[in-house]
Amino acid sequence: MSVTLTGQDETTLRTAAHGAVTLLAAAGAVDKPHKIAKNGSTALASATGLVGHVLAVYPEGKDLAGRSTAEIADRVLPALTAAMGLLSEQDPAEADNFRRTVLVAVEAAQAHQGKPSPVMAEMTRKITEALDAG
After folding, report:
1. How far apart are CA 50 and CA 96, in angstroms?
2. What is the rounded (10 degree) CA torsion for 98, 104, 108, 113?
3. What per-residue string of b and e applies to 10-31 under the rule 16 or more CB within 10 Å gives b?
4. pLDDT at 35 over 90
């Protein structure tokens, strides 16, 4: 199955995936956010298939920062749902690839801590819920 993504579709995928890592770094701000971001970004860079090609480019011009975690979540969680929806319409296998890629990045982002903190566990739940809503 051939997938046709517009420039806006690619931006949505990038914002969603890189934004999920940004959300975790913001949620774990007292626990080495740079390490969370590095581990999650490394996992995204390891993606394959169409998703890997799209995520190889960081979402330039899209500010993933915010004054609060809530402000970041307001952009990222809907982007996760939208990304899953647009991929599911065109190629369910690629949608599954995107979902797995984001969840691996979430897991990798938390790998340095052992057991996730309650805050990180809750953010992971919200990310997973947004993915499953698409």
Report:
1. 12
2. 130
3. bbbbbbbbbbbbbbbbbbbeeb
4. no
What are the residue ranges spanned by the domains of the chain?
7-133
The per-residue pLDDT for range 48-85, each reduced to its tens digit, is 999 999 999 877 755 677 888 999 999 999 999 999 99
* Helix, strand or coil, per DSSP, at residue 15: helix
Closest to 106 (Cα-Cα) out of 10, 13, 12, 23: 23
C-alpha–C-alpha distance, residues 118 and 63, integer Å? 27
For 99-125, the pLDDT digits (tens) are 999 999 999 988 766 777 888 889 999
Task: Report yes or no: 3 and 94 within 8 Å, Cβ to Cβ.
Answer: yes
Output the pTM of the full model. 0.92
pLDDT at position 30 over 70: no
First to last CA, the chain: 19
The pLDDT of residue 133 is above 60: yes
Alpha carbon dihedral 134, 80, 38, 60, in 10-degree steps, equals: 140
